[in-house]
UniProtKB/TrEMBL annotation:
SUPFAM superfamilies: F-box domain. InterPro entries: F-box-assoc_dom_typ1 (IPR006527), F-box-assoc_interact_dom (IPR017451), F-box-like_dom_sf (IPR036047), F-box_dom (IPR001810), SCF_F-box_component (IPR050796). PANTHER family: BNACNNG10540D PROTEIN, F-BOX PROTEIN CPR30-LIKE. Residues 1-46 form the F-box domain. This is F-box domain-containing protein. It comes from the Eukaryota. Pfam families: F-box, FBA_1.
Length: 391
């Protein structure tokens, strides 16, 4: 029956189906399987899904629950959640995740980033022992990326003090997803070593850095990144005379070149915590400012990408608001903000109406939030792609 339909009509029908329905269609007949697993259809469906979301995309959460209060960073349980239009559609414990036996983290795994329905996770931020994976929660498939090239210096302990900085993004020219790994010293300003993993070639390769040395933030184990406009972004620092100046380090995923974006003066000279956020189609920076016993969180948005003077402070909250704010996790495309509260609850705040909605209702001690979109990436059967089901 489906083979009798013209390809353009079949495409129009299938493009409007959700991912779960398309997965079921792949086992109906060989013709549908071939059509749905074709790379052109996969990316056309992804683009249509993004356009149809109109700023109401999904939200991906990684959550950490205390199981022993005496040593919370060792004794915990991880959960992952997917939300669509603020409604939870999937949640499961990391213990039920088959990758839990592969990841070797001493504390907990870390989400590098999300891109086109894929989630990149690393088990450790330790220089010489790293396992990464790329995972599509929508279709429950994943691929393990084993140890990268830079695993140690000489084998005599010289790797101590080195820490990696990760990025994850999409090469639109070559239709390739890439993991970027920079290795630098935690307390010293040096030119890092850089390697890139290509999903298309399933391999790592080293590339020259070609940018000024930088300093890693103190919170080295969880340096956030944002992939936007084909570029990966991190907030880092450098020494200038007797001052530390902050800036945004960039990596063009297509050209594989580094660059910099300048922060507004207040953020550039700040000595307190800065972290990068994605705000829909805009680049954002979260500034935590401590004044005596109070903490204020402000979100700065780059209204026109790459233009220095286009930074604006759009939100500022006293940490005591909304029963106590621990941190800001994400700025959604529709302007709503994901907060982690003192209580451990993860909530969605509408800054206009000041309505706060609980998303999780438990006492989490740490969380990651990022934008998410359903996709068919990984739908095609390949030897190194693993699948699973939850019982």
């Amino acid at each position: 029956m489906f083979g009798d339909l013209p390809p353009e009509i079949l495409g129009e029908i299938l493009h409007r189906l959700p991912v779960k329905s398309l997965v079921k269609c792949t086992i109906v007949c060989k013709h549908l399987n071939s059509f749905i697993t074709d790379q052109t259809f996969i990316f056309d469906h992804l683009n249509q899904t993004i356009q149809a979301s109109s700023g109401n995309g999904w939200l991906f959460l990684q959550l950490y629950l205390r199981t022993r209060h005496l040593v919370p960073y060792i004794h915990h349980e991880e959960f992952y959640s997917l939300y669509s239009h603020n409604q939870q559609i999937d949640q499961f414990s990391f213990k039920k995740f088959p990758l839990s036996g592969l990841l070797r983290s001493y504390n907990h795994s870390t989400v590098v980033g999300t891109c086109d329905g894929l989630v990149c996770i690393t088990d450790s931020q330790i220089y010489h022992m790293a396992t990464l994976l790329i995972w599509n929660p929508s279709i429950r498939k994943y691929m393990i990326i084993f140890e990268p090239i830079l695993t140690s210096d000489t084998g005599n302990g010289q790797h101590k003090g080195y820490q990696p900085l990760y990025g994850f993004g999409f090469d639109s020219k070559n239709k390739d997803y890439k993991v970027i790994r920079l290795v630098a010293l935690l307390d010293k300003e040096i030119v890092p070593q850089v390697e890139v993993f290509s999903l298309a070639s399933r391999s790592w390769r080293s590339i020259p850095f070609r940018a000024s040395p930088f300093l890693l933030p103190d919170l080295f184990w969880n340096i956030p990144q944002v992939f936007l406009n084909g570029v990966v972004h991190w907030v880092v620092s450098r020494r200038c005379d007797d001052h530390i100046l902050n800036f945004i380090l960039t990596f063009d995923v297509v050209e594989e070149t580094f660059g910099e974006l300048t922060l507004p003066q207040l953020l550039r000279e700040s000595t307190t915590e800065l972290s990068i956020l994605e705000g829909g189609d805009s680049l954002c920076v979260l500034h935590a400012l401590y004044v005596e016993d109070d903490c204020f969180f402000s979100i700065w948005v780059m209204k026109e990408y790459g233009v220095v003077g286009s930074w604006n402070e759009v939100y500022c909250w006293d940490s005591h608001l909304y029963k106590g704010i621990t941190t800001v996790l994400d700025l959604c495309a529709d302007g709503k903000v994901v907060l982690l509260l003192y209580s451990g609850d993860v909530v969605l705040l509408d800054p206009v109406t000041e309505v706060v909605k609980s998303l999780t209702g438990q006492k989490w001690f740490h969380a990651f939030a990022g934008s998410y979109v359903e996709s068919l990436v990984f739908i095609k059967r390949e030897p190194d792609l693993l699948s699973y089901e939850f019982t």
